[in-house]
Design brief:
The chain is globular, with a radius of gyration of 13 Å. It has helices at about 15-25, 40-45, 60-70, 90-100, 110-120; strands at about 5-10, 30-35, 50-55, 80-85, 105. It contains 5 helices and 5 strands, in the order βαβαβαβαβα. The two termini are about 15 Å apart. β4 (about 80-85), α4 (about 90-100) and β5 form a beta-alpha-beta unit.
Length: about 130
């Protein structure tokens, strides 16, 4: 059975490694990118089914990456789930909607919550 592909973009290497491992243990083919400048090229190479994207990164933030994704036919329709450790609804809601990001999770979150959301995007029933 083909595994669905998920890419996680987050500049926190420790979090990234742990979360990618969790996804792989939950029957996804997951990979991570910890350099926001390389995110777009890695996404284009990997062509995931779902993207998990940290909003607060430097030098390029998640909003800029999400905007870049909309410019490419291969990536514009891939579901994006935003994650952040610092979230204020009024600060982010308009940008999220404009960039087509429908869901966001605030760190720390329970991995099973995002896994459930990924499966929802993939049209899979909860196990």
């Amino acid at each position: 059975m083909k595994k669905n592909k998920v890419i996680v973009v987050d500049d926190n290497k420790e979090f990234l490694d742990e979360f990618v491992e969790t996804l792989n243990l939950n029957n996804f083919e997951a990979t991570g990118v910890d350099n926001s400048l390389l995110a777009l090229s890695e996404i284009l190479k990997f062509l995931p089914d779902v993207i998990i994207l940290d909003l607060k990164m430097k030098p390029k933030n998640g909003y800029q990456i999400a905007e870049d994704l909309k410019k490419f036919m291969e990536t514009r329709n891939i579901p994006v789930i935003a994650i952040t450790g610092n979230y204020k609804e009024e600060e982010h809601s308009l940008l999220l909607r404009m960039l087509g990001i429908k869901d966001r999770f605030i760190k720390p979150f329970k991995p099973e919550e995002i896994i459930s959301k990924i499966n929802e995007y993939l049209g899979k029933s909860p196990a």
